[in-house]
Amino acid sequence: LLEDKLEQLTTIYKDTPPSTTREVDSMQKTIANIMDLRVEINEKIDEFVDLQREIMHVIDKVPNSKYRSILTYRYLTFLEWESIALKMRYTTNHVHRLHRKALDVVEKLI
To answer: Is the overall model pTM greater than 0.90, yes or no?
Structure first.
């Protein structure tokens, strides 16, 4: 929706003769800034996806399925410790202990 509006505004302003009016200049600058930010956001999303892929590859190498589950819940689905504990039917303290052990395994893998 935002992209459609930006495209409409960009087309309108491209076809409009240059003006010295501050309002038009301000609008053009705003549109240019929004388009630059959109590019920057897309680059950050790409970086995030690449990082997630790397994390997934490391987690997949962990031999213990409980450790993999905890790491996946925490670092790929961003669950809080309490939610992980509920899903796995463990106490939060036990999840923390398993997480420490999982990180030890990851450290040896990388």
So the answer is: no
